[in-house]
Amino acid sequence: MTRKRHWLLVLFLTFVASCVTVNIYFPAAAIQEAADKIVEDVRKTPEQKPGPKPDKSSRMDRIRVVRLGPAEAQAAMDINVSTPAIRSLQASMAGRFPQLQPFYARNVIGEGSNGLLTVFDTAALPLKERADVARLADQENRDRQALYAEIVRANNLDMGRIGEVQRLFANSWRGKSSPGWLIQLDSGQWVKK
Predict the structure, then answer these.
(1) Model confidence at 47, in pLDDT bands (50, 70, 90)?
(2) What is the average pLDDT value for the chain, to the nearest integer?
(3) How far apart are CA 156 and CA 135, in angstroms?
(4) Total tally of structural domains belonging to the chain
(5) The whole model's pTM is what?
(6) 89: burial class by Cβ within 10 Å (0-12, 13-18, 19+)?
C-alpha cells in the first residue's frame, strides 16, 4: 500500500468515526429551546392570546449551508416533545399554574436550580393555604419529574441524562419567572428575580 493510499484510508476512517459520534451527542441546545417553549406555554395566562410571530429571519439566515461532521447534525436535530404523555403533563401544569401564581407572588414558593419547585416557610399562611401549597407543589414537582423522564424516553436518550434535562428546564423556569419571584441561582443562593 502506498503512502498516499494509507493517508486516504486514515482520512476516510476518521470521517466515518466522526459521523458515528452524532448518535451519542446530547442535544442540549435543542432541549433548551423545547424547554423554553413548554414553559412559555405552561405559564400563558388566558388573556395572553398567541398570535403570529413576526418573521425576524434575514435572507442569509434562511440559506442552508451543508457541512460535514457532528456539530451540524446536532444543530439540525429535532426534539420530540409532542407525545401524548408530554402533552398531558403540559396541560396538567398549565391548569395548575393559576393556582400557583399567588404563592409565587407572596414568595411562598420559588424556582429551584434543579428544575423543581421549593416551598418556603408557610407558618404565616392559614391552615387551608398551607395544605393547598403543599399539595400543589407536590403535584407540580411530580409532573415536572415525569415530563423530564418522558422527554428523555421520547428522544431515545440515556436515562442518566435526566439531570441535564432538569438543569436545562431550570434555566427556562427561572428565566420566565416574573419579577419579584424567588429563584435559586446555580450557586445555590436564593434571590428575587
Answers:
(1) low
(2) 83
(3) 32
(4) 1
(5) 0.73
(6) buried
